[in-house]
Request: fold
Amino acid sequence: MPINLLNPNLWVDKYSDYLYNYTIVRVNNHEIAQDLISETFLAGLKSKDNFKGEATERTWLISILKRKIIDHYRKINSNKGKAEIRVTYSDGESEGDWLEERISDPYDKTAEDTMENEELGMAIFGCLEGLAEKQAAIFRKKTIDGIDTETICNEYNITPSNLWVIIHRARKAMADCLEKSWF
Amino acid sequence: MSGEKLVLVEFMSFKLECDKANHICDKNQYKEATFREKVRLIFHLIYCRACRKYTARNNKLTKLIKTPDVKTVSAEDKSILKERLQKETTE
Ligand SMILES: [Zn+2]
Reply:
């Protein structure tokens, strides 16, 4: 039995924010990012028998997403024609290398800030994955979605003091998790 | 009662335990602490190092999460994603 199991039903709730933060700075378009993530989940679903459980679910999804982003740029470039690539790389580097480079580097210097913050977005949602499911959901609703205490309490059938205990523990765990790189 | 004593009594009534101070600090992250609570917290932080540390970390967490470049997928977009996945699994 593999150590890591796939659980496609939870993918959207668990990983879409993380994947979105990863994708948006690379394609810079909401619809395209959304499509690429959707395609990634579908491809993951189709090839889920290939998942060996050695990587975590998220790492595995990211590796699929990376291919999707590369394919996306490949498509754009074949539409534009190859001339542009040859101009950019007069020394005759292959198209593949150019694409890989484009994926892994910010396009220009002004993108540096975005790159840093993009990592923050991934770090936050990566840390959120580490919390217990209910704790993560409640923390998210309260902190990120800005839903009021009463609504959350009704949804989960908890008292406000239960909620604040959950929020307190979640905040401590999130701060601990983010501490190394962001505090 | 002398003026000094009165100040002391006022101050003691402001005295907070650490877990209560942290609770106010948590509420304050969501702008849900009252003015009185905030004043009590500030008094507490003057003499409590542990809570100063907690408050600093807590404030920093709020600031990080509010960074505009931290993107989220809206609930609506999530249900679209779920529908697409669902469609695929049932086919
Ligand atoms: Zn204290």
